[in-house]
Amino acid sequence: IDNDSFATIMEYCDGNDLDSLLKQQKCIPEREARYIMVQVVLALRYLNERRPPVIHYDLKPGNILLLSGSNAWHVKITDFGLSKIVPEDIGDASMELTSPGAGTYWYLPPECFLIGLNPTKISSKVDVWSIGVIFYQCLYGKKPFGNELSQANILEQHTILNATIITFPPKPFVSNDAKTFIKCCLVYSKENRMDVIRMSESAYLKCKKPERVILPQIANIKIEDNIV
């Protein structure tokens, strides 16, 4: 690096990401998955309490980095390329969606797929829906809506716009409390869906200091294998 070069230095997360963990393990036991979700939700609450607040908008397993240490994973959220800064003058109200069609469709809520004369309104409840999808995927090894579909097919078949019913496989065993939490995150109507603050205060998560659990190690991946 010389005086004419620009470099961005970032924290190194040696545990790779949640997407890699799910590809290796397929699904994660509820206790471990909850441990990860608590940390992600706390991070979302921090973003929501900033002034002005921030909506991540593209929350997914690949954007949840895992930092190992003391026999437990610590979570970092990354990739704010599609994040939305909520204008201070609207307070807790919804803001206009400025990037329709962007994002990772499996993890976006129905309101992000609406087409009409007036711009779509979004809020932190977008991230709440994403948490429900990610938690479901951690527990069952598949996404609740359009798991086998491409993004193009999701659009063509209106998969998320029709995602009014969520079903839970009989195996693996998942507690009723976890299922109830997921249902609350995946409420179809944004008006009836809880926001980030309410989600962080849910009895299931108890977002204070998450208990420490030992999580499985992710197989090492050579850096040169991921150079584009």
UniProtKB/TrEMBL annotation:
GO process annotations (BP): chromosome segregation; intracellular signal transduction
The protein's name in its UniProt record: Serine/threonine-protein kinase tousled-like 2 (Trinotate prediction)
Cellular compartments per GO CC: nucleus
Pfam families per record: Pkinase
Key word ATP-binding present: yes
InterPro entries according to UniProt: Kinase-like_dom_sf, Prot_kinase_dom, Ser/Thr_kinase_AS
Domain of life: Eukaryota
Alphabetized UniProt keyword annotations: ATP-binding, Kinase, Nucleotide-binding, Serine/threonine-protein kinase, Transferase
Record keyword Nucleotide-binding present: yes
Residue span, Protein kinase domain: 1-205
Molecular function GO labels: ATP binding; protein serine/threonine kinase activity
Gene source species: Myxobolus squamalis (Myxosporean)
